[in-house]
Structures are given as C-alpha cells and as structure tokens.
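Consider the following assembly input.
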Amino acid sequence: MIGIPAIRKEGRAKVLGRARYTDDKTFRCLLYGATVRSTVPRGILKAIRFGEGIPWKEFTIVTAQDIPGENRVAAIVKDQPFLVEVGGMINHAEEPVLLLAHPDRYLLEKARRAVILEVEELPAILDIQSSLDRAQIIGGNENIFKELRIEKGDPASVWARAAHIIEGAYRTGAQEHLYIEPNGMLAIVAHGDHEDQVTVCGSLQCPYYIQKALMNLFGLPADKVRIVQMETGGAFGGKEDYPSLIAGHAALLAWKSGKPVKLIYDREEDMAATTKRHPSRTRMKTAFDEAGHLLALDIDFILDAGAYATLSSVVLSRGAIHAAGVYRCSNTHIHARAVATNTPPSGAFRGFGAPQSLFALERHLDVCAAQLGLDPAELRRKNFLKIGDTMATGQVIQEKLDLAGLMDRTLQEIGYTEKRRSFAVINATDEPIKRGVGISVFMHGCGFTGSGETYLASVAGIEGLADGRVAVLAASTEIGQGKDTVFSQIASEALNIPMELVEVAQADTKVVPDSGPTVASRSTMVVGRLVEDAAYAFKQALIQQGFLEEPYTPELFREAVRRSHARFGTVKCYTQYHKPPHIEWDDQTYRGDAYPTFSWGCYAAEVAVDTVTFEVKVEDFVAIQEVGRVINPVLAAGQIEGGVAQGIGWALWESVEWKGGRMVNNQMTNYIIPTSVDLPRIRVAFLENPHPAGPGGAKGLGELPMDGPAPAVLNALQNALGNLRLDEVPMTPERLLECMEVACG
Amino acid sequence: MRGYVPGCEVKVPVTLAEALDVLAAEPGGWRPMAGGTDLMVLFNAGRMPAGRFLDLSRIEELRGIWEDETTLRFGALTTFSEMRDCPSVHRHLPNLVKSARATGALAIQNRGTLGGNIANASPAADTPPSLLAYGAELELVSLRGRRTVAYDAFHQGYKQMDLAVDELVAGIRVPKPQGLGFHFYRKVGTRQAQAISKLCLAAYARIEGGLIAEFRVGLGSLAPAPVRARRAEAMILGKPLTALQVTAAREALMADICPIDDIRSTVHYRRVVTANVFQQMLEELAHA
C-alpha cells in the first residue's frame, strides 16, 4: 500500500458536501459568540462601557474577571492573556478584551460594535528596528523573546585572508495563511457537582495543545477537558496556537451561559486577529576564496514575534538552524533574535522560520555569484554538503546525499543553460518583456527541532474493532494534507490488509493518545512510524495470542480481530517515541543533531517581467525533491504544488498592509493570493532515497515546498533584469519599480 | 455577516413605473440595487448600514441589448456576461468585452450590471473607461421624464453624479465606431483575474487619411471618478499617425490624473505605469 496513489480517504464526503465542519454543527438553545477587541496597538484598558440601544441583560458577557483558572494561555511561556483585564495592558490591536454571546447573531454583531473600550493609549513599537532601538520596552527581556547563537569555527579569523567578502541584508513580510475555512469553535460545558466538564469541537491542528490551555484556564484536570477536531478546511500552521485562545473564549461563554456556544470568525476577523508568518530581517556577511569556496558565514537573523512569545522561540530555532543552508562552511556564526512588537502575535506557518532564513541565504548566493563572476549553479556546486560534512550545529551528514545530482536534474528539467543563454540575447533588445531563470537549493528538517520529539514522547496506537477492522489511534489531524489516507496506507502495509479494513479515529482527546501536534513535517515520518510500529505490535499480539497465523488472507485477519475483540473487549496496541541512540542535541549550546534527518530540494523558476507595468509572471516552475520514500505520489505532489503556489504568492503578491498596527487589507479582495491564471504549471518530481527513521522509508515533506520558491523566483528576476537589489519579498510591482529606479540612479 | 439584516427592508418592483413611483414618493429613502455585487460586499463587511433597498433586478424594461445603424443600446441591467456573449458588442466595442471579462469572477459577471457599474460610481470600475473612450451617453429616467447626458459629464467627483435622487440610469447608448478604428484596453490589476484595478486605460481612435480624426482615452483608478484624459487627447487629436508627439502627450497625461496611495498601489506606481501603458498604446496606434 506504500507508494500507491490511494484515493483520499475523506475526499468523497468533502466532494459530496457531507463532511461536517464546525459551523455545520448545531444545537437547540445555541448561542453565538463574539469577541470585542482593542483597536489600538498599545495602552492601558481603563474601563469597559456598554453603549445604548442594546438589551444587554439578554447577553452573556465574559470579562477577564470571570475566568475561573489562570488568565494566561498555557504555551511555551505563559505571557498571553485570554482577555485583557481592566487596568491591564493592551499589547496589540485586535487583542481580545470581552466576550459576548446571544441567540441572535445579528443583534450580537450590533452589540459587539456598541461596547466602548476606554483606553489610555501608549506609544507603540511596530517594527523590528524600533523594537531593537528600545524606544519602549514592551515585552520579553528588553524586547527580546528569544536569542540564540550557533557557533562553528571562527569567522573573525577569516575576514582578513578572504579573497572576497560580500554582505547583504534581506527582508520578508508577514504572510496570512488563508486556509479556506476560517477559525471556529463550538463549546459545551456541563456543570458538575464537583467539577465541570468542558467539551470543545472545532477547526484545529493540535487537540492536546488546546486541552492543556483549557485545563489551565479552568483549573481542571485532563479528563474534564475534551477536545474534538471537526473536519478542518486547511490550517498551514494557522490553527496551531491561536485556536487555544478561541477554544478558551467559546468555553468561557458556554461555561457562563450554561448553553452551547459557537464562536466562528468571519474572514475579516480571522485575517485581522489571528497569527501570520513572522516578518524577518537577515544580514549576511560571507567570505569566499579566489575559486568561490565559502570560507565564512556570519548571519544576523531577526524575527518580528509580535506582542507575545507564543511559538516564536521555536520558530526562531528552526529559522536559525536552516540559515546556513545546504553548504559546507567551517566558520559559521548565526545570531538569532525574536523581538517584540505591538502587532498581533506572529505564529506558526508552513516552514516555521526556515523560509525566511533560506530566502536570505539563497538570494544572497546569487548576489555573491554575480560579484564573483560565477554562474549561480556553479557557485552552489562548489559548496554543497556531502556525506561526512558537518552542518552549522555540528550535525554530521550520515546519509547518502547528492545535491549536485538533485540540482542537475532541476537544471535539465527547466533548461537552465539554454534559457539563460537565449534570454540574455532577447533581453538585450528593446522588447518590453524580460525573461530570466533562477534556482534555489534547500533543505527542511523533519520533525521537531533538537530534543523536541524527545520531550513530546508521542504515542500512537492501533485498535481492533468489533467488526474485524482496525482503527488508527493518533491525535494527528486531517487538515487537508491527506493524513488519514497516509496513515491508512502505513497501517495496511504493516498489517498486510487492504486499506478498507483500516479506519482512522477522529482526533478526539477522549479517544486518541497524545501523538503530538500536527506540525513540523512530522506526521508522516514521526507519527507514521509510531503507527507502523503499533501495527506490527498489534499483528504480533494477534499471533502470540493464537488468533492469527502467517501467512493470512484479509478475511482471516478480520476474523482474528473479531475473535480477539469478542474475547477481550478492547484490543489496543500503543507505541511511544524514543530518541534513537545516535541522535544527540544540546539545547543550551545549539550543538548536535538538530533533526533526525532532512528533506532536500532544488527548485527552478522561469519568470517574465513586463517592464511596462512591472508585473511578474512565473512562466515555468520545476520542483524536484528528495523526501525519502513517497507514500502516496498524488498527495505528495499535491503538497508540493500547494506549497509552491503559497511560496510564489509570498514572493510576489502577499503583502500584509499595516496601519497603526492593524491589518487593513484583511479581505480576500485586497490580500492578493495567486489564482490559477497567476501560476505556471508546477512540474514536480521526487528522487527517492528511503530513510530508516520513517515508515516505509518516508521523510517529511509538508513544509519543504514553502522554502524554495521565493528565492528561486527572485533569483530569476535578477537574471531577467540584471543586478538589482532584489532583497525583499513580496516583490510587488510597486517594489520592483522602486528597485529598478534605484538601479538606474 | 456584519450587516444588521433585520434592519433591512427590500422592495421589488416589477415595472419601471413602479420603481420610479417609489423613488418619487420618498426621494432618497430607497437605495436602488441592481446586481448587488458591490452593495452586498459592503453590507456583509458591516461597512454599509442596514436600510431600505429598491431591488431593480426584476424590471424587464431595463434589460436587453438593442442595435441600429449607428448605436448599440444597453438596458441598465445588462450583465457583464451578456456583454461578453453578444456578437455585436464583440464586433463594434471590443474594449467593452475586455472590460466585462476583466470584472470580478464569473459569478459576479453573471450578476453585476452595466448600469450598476456606472451608478455605483467606483473610480476603479472596469467598464467606465471603455464607455468614456467610446463616447457613451446615458439615458436617465424619473417620473419627471427622460433625459440624456454625455457619460463624460456624468461623474462629477468621488461618488458625485449628475443623477437626481428620484432618477435611475435606464440605458447606455454607445455610438458604433465607424471607419478605420483603433481599440486599446489595458487593466493593470492586483493579479491576473478576480482583481480590482490599480489603473485602467481604454482608448479609441478613428483614423482618417493618416490622421487621428477621433481620439478618446478613458481612465480608471486614477482620479476620484472615471475620467477622460482630455489634455493628453488634445495632444494627439488631428495629428498624423506618423508624427505622434509621444513624450509631450505623456507629460500632458500626468496633468489629467490625480492618483492616490491606497491598499492596492501607490501614487508613484500609478503615474509611472499609466504613462508607460499610454505610451505603449500610442506606439500600437502609430503602427495601426
């Protein structure tokens, strides 16, 4: 079953409109919830007043004072309140202050607008530089949430003897996830004699993160907080941490009203209030010898974390570790900081810091190649990591790695050499359309960074069902990526039964064990491996207990499961993640094996720039990657195509427009993602190299395709237009015009 | 939905007379609505208060495309899709087809109307530049009677129109271009489809004996309302095709526009790109 293009397990229900999303679920006596938010980026909340013309006594109203447990979201650092209390600090615009619920959703909206927040406004910090300048200290440690250094060798010893020293600074903007289904939660609280029972169903990625947050919010034990994932219309990291807040809000309203409460964000609220990709600024200083070998790499990497710590420390880690890319370099210093600003907290987004730092490096290398008089592909070829080389953290490349082969395949597919030659001729004429081709080479670490997986100690299982089928028990969520299908393929392969005999249990904390969050390109490789191991253990158990003998037919297997179930009631096998013995990581020094393994990619983009309008069209795109063994080629290609589309969007159009710390283009009309006519055909290929860590040899691939497109597209632009300072994404037509004017003096 | 639905009242007249009666009885009391593709977006976003709407969509008299020797006449409720589907529009008014095709998504094109696109008075609407370039006229109607106004005199400022509170746009008359014509339409949007324009330029020229005998340029997203590029037109009109004063006309065009910085683009980009597109148009015209 591994390697076949199995049909998406939940696809039929989605296509027929039978899939049940959060907003499809309804109850009698249902209340609708709404969130009153701050409109200023920073200030002291002095008072909350209720305007005229609203029957306030009909409303359930929740303020910070009502919170039964701790008014802090239980995350890595507990710094973010569920609701700002009167007298407390507002740290960003759109920060939740008060909750309302009412059976009439139209009246509710009217009421939301009638709440008046009296705020003593304070000066706000709205960008990275102001945060570093410390005009105001607004959070973290002197505006720094996390600072880390990765040190290998000594760049300072190299500068004096290097043939070439090349510097550059690169910036990336915030990016909105724009999952098709906005955030939403439905909460029910049963009041008990001793303890309440809180149940929340919703659109989410990480049920156990929410459970932990709600236990802290209500002061309840785990068995009193149940989180159930409904069908979820996309997430991309955007439903990783913020849903804890929404679930908490819905639950508070349900708890206070004693009725079910549905809290669904509309698109505008979702875009304005929820997390975005961290904006970044990266300064690179590189030294090369005469021949173009990389001698030293000094990187200053800064992320704009927004107002609270949330996941920024780990986003920063991943970004910093990926900052040195796929190149051998004996002297590398990486200084990374996540800084506080009074903007809505930045959060997880496909790639998790790596697209930002890889954009800087891969863009910088093309700038270097131009200065060194080398072809960008040849400069890379001279410096690729090979087996036995060490990465910036000291991690030794243990597996077969052929980056030159990967790159050559991409160059050949796109027609790199011929195109660069012929475009140079045509571009020299007065034709208004200029064309170029560019590449990027990159990697993405699979699973949690460093000791993350060890701390998580994830569990997954297989359960035998009364009818002889089996169920996969894992908290991994189906968010459109195909997890249900892939897990079924893995389990059916291990059990040697058809996929129809494998069911995947709904991600419900009452039913499935904590297999960690659905993030970090970890579901297939890490949790999938647990599923595979649990399936083997389940089969062994059936054999040892005498229910099954090998070889067996699917019917005999089914019969064995039926009989074991009849005999024992429940039959479940669980496996837990244990750190492989050869992997070592030191959280303090950032030395060691940052990831159990990496997926590798080389992407190429061909662009056409209209010099009349400065519009850029990506006309061809080749995405070739090595992701271990591919479990489902159709789903895998879909992941790559979607990631590339998202990456091209980030590179060219997706610009979050801020005004006073608020997103002002929070509509799909004005936040520009590419449509099908804005995108080229995306040509995807996988080079397979099975890896022992993953199920059937699979590695992670969900985030990889976000890392490569932006630098490839901008490198292609450089090829089309000459050496402009194309150091920022999104490179909108407006910015491109500015860059071209700067270049023309 | 952020608009307060219970606060809305909708009247659905089925004849023009009925609609005009309502407007005359309570001038300004009812907001005319055709396809609703602009109003409903605003209402959904809570940017338009609940109120009283006069739904014109059932009035058959306002539908249809007619044609005689010299003119194409569009009922105000003609949809973008109907314009795209009409062979006469393709033959005589290619810019109007392009602008209908450039508007919104197919669903919007099925629902949105030419009259609505005019009376909504958005400076960024896609059909007005084409109508300006073709020298369209509007038929306005009220209980007081019918009158005709030149479309280029209709928009008077941001959302300001030569349209009384009891009047409706009933139809749009566009003269059929005669002789040797040159048609040019370019919308520069935020992306290739389903986009609002950053700028839009439509041009029509009639060429007679090697001279530019007729020349109009309509502009979108470059002023508080759709406007004609009168200064630039004056530099070109009457000149021989072989001696178009491109640089001077480009400069004159800059005095015809007053773009703004907004969430879609910048003043600088709009000025530079408008000039570039205009020049590209003149170069094509010179080779026509």
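Chain A touches chain B through 30 residues (CB under 8 Å). Ask yourself how this observation constrains the way the partners meet.
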